[in-house]
Structures are given as structure tokens and as C-alpha cells.
Write a structure and sequence with these properties.
The structure holds 2 protein chains of 2 kinds. Chain A is an all-beta fold. In chain A, about 0% of the residues lie in helices and about 50% in strands. In chain A, a hairpin with a 6-residue loop joins strand 4 and strand 5 (about 45-50). The radius of gyration of chain A is 13 Å and the shape is globular. Chain A starts with a strand and ends with a strand. Chain B has no helices and 11 strands. By secondary structure, chain B is mostly beta strands. In chain B, strands 2, 4, 5, 6, 9, 10 and 11 form a 7-stranded mixed β-sheet that branches. A 4-stranded antiparallel β-sheet of chain B has the order 1-3-8-7, with no helix packed on it. Helices cover about 0% and strands about 55% of the residues of chain B. The chains are: A mainly beta, B mainly beta. The interface between A and B is medium-sized, with 24 and 20 residues.
């Protein structure tokens, strides 16, 4: 079974830039996987950030951007703010209407 | 404004059936896919399955033998049934609207915690 991989934790300084990645245990992520990204704070549902690799959801500031970097999908946050400290999940489309979430990245801003 | 709200028992006994309903307000079910996603305590997200407004369903291979997602009698509801539950099914269950195109889970309910315990 294919596993979607994410960094368990990352840290960034306020105002800094950080890149979170989303990979596959076997193979490369491409736009064909329609990668999307979600932000989750404790006790809240995931909030859509990015879909189809690099399209921002409504109301998402442009300091969040999505891309393919090498063989992974990536979420880059530029100008990190304190309230960016939370969990981030990617999800990939595996075909046949099957989606698989990554394990999530806990981002610390310090 | 479209809103999704999960409802159902917060406690289910082992081996019994978990049943949840998602009520959609501000929109009909037409032309969208409607999904159930769960999150075990302190863990990541897992897709359970989804249903199209026509009633066509797709289930996670790992849960397929125990899951049924159906449209409600009300045109603004859909439901989840998960049979033979164990403690491993304890989770926050979210309903979500899935669009295609573009492919993504664009709207989420607040989630409801279901605990499996005797």
C-alpha cells in the first residue's frame, strides 16, 4: 500500500520561509496526483489552503504557495506568522476516486 | 453560506454499528461528492469514502467491508454506517464536500467525536 509521506515536524522563525513536502513511499508526485494542502488548528476541522498543486483556496493569503519540487509536492510559507503554527496535511489522488492523506507536519514558529 | 453539520451518538459499544448523519444547509447535494473522513486522537486524517448525488459510492479499500454511505431521506442529508466497531474506530468523524473539478475537499463540517467503549 502506498504511503504519503510528510515531515513530522518543522520549525521556522517569524518572518522566515519554510517548505513542507509531500511524497510517496514509492514513486514521484506529479500534478496527476492533484495534490492539495490543508491547515488544521486544535479542535478545528482542516481548512483548505491549496488544491490542484498550486491554486489557493478562497481567502488564503498569497504567502502560501504550492508547487512540485523534484519528486514531491510542496507547500511554501513565506513571511511566517505566529498563527501559522499548527498542523498541515497534504492529500494525493491515487486514482479510482481514492484519496490518501499524509501523516501531517506540525509546524512551529519560533 | 453552505454549512455541514455531523450528528449522531458520541459513544458506541464494541461490535456494534456506528451511525452518523451529515446535514447540509445552504445548498443541495446535487453535482457534488459528499465524503466522510476521520481522524483518530492525536493522529492523521483518513478518507472513509464518498457518495455522489446520484447515489454512487466509493469506499476506502481498508474499510470497504464495514462501511455504507447513503443519501438521506431528506435531500440535504447523507449518512455513514460503520459496522463491527472496535476501539480503533474511535475518532473525530468529519463530513466534507468534495468537488471535481477541481479535485479537493472544499468544505468541512466541524467534526464529531465518536468513542468506542463498553
Amino acid at each position: 500500500q502506498t504511503v504519503v509521506t510528510q515531515e513530522p515536524s518543522l520549525s521556522v522563525s517569524p518572518g522566515g520561509t519554510v517548505t513542507l513536502t509531500c511524497g510517496l513511499s514509492s514513486g514521484s508526485v506529479s500534478t496527476d496526483y492533484f495534490p492539495s494542502w490543508y491547515q488544521q488548528t486544535p479542535g478545528q476541522p482542516p481548512r483548505p489552503l491549496i488544491y490542484t498543486t498550486n491554486t489557493r483556496s478562497s481567502g488564503v493569503p498569497d504567502r502560501f504557495s504550492g508547487s512540485i519540487l523534484g519528486n514531491k509536492a510542496a507547500l511554501t510559507i513565506t513571511g511566517a506568522q505566529a498563527d501559522d503554527e499548527c498542523d498541515y496535511y497534504c492529500v494525493l489522488y491515487m486514482g479510482s476516486s481514492i484519496w490518501v492523506f499524509g501523516g501531517g507536519t506540525k509546524l512551529t514558529v519560533l | 453560506q453552505v454549512r455541514l453539520q455531523e450528528s449522531g451518538p458520541g459513544l458506541v459499544k464494541p461490535s456494534e454499528t456506528l451511525s452518523l448523519t451529515c446535514t447540509v444547509s445552504g445548498a443541495s447535494l446535487t453535482n457534488y461528492y459528499w465524503a466522510w473522513i476521520r481522524q483518530s486522537p492525536g493522529k492523521g486524517l483518513e478518507c472513509i469514502g464518498h457518495i455522489y448525488h446520484t447515489g454512487a459510492t466509493v469506499y476506502s479499500p481498508s474499510l470497504k467491508s464495514r462501511v455504507t454511505i447513503s443519501l438521506g431521506t431528506s435531500k440535504s442529508q447523507f449518512s455513514l454506517m460503520l459496522t463491527s466497531v472496535t476501539a480503533a474506530d474511535t475518532a473525530v468523524y468529519f463530513c466534507a464536500r468534495y468537488s471535481n473539478p477541481p479535485r479537493h475537499f472544499q468544505l468541512w463540517g466541524q467534526g464529531t467525536l465518536v468513542t468506542v467503549s463498553s
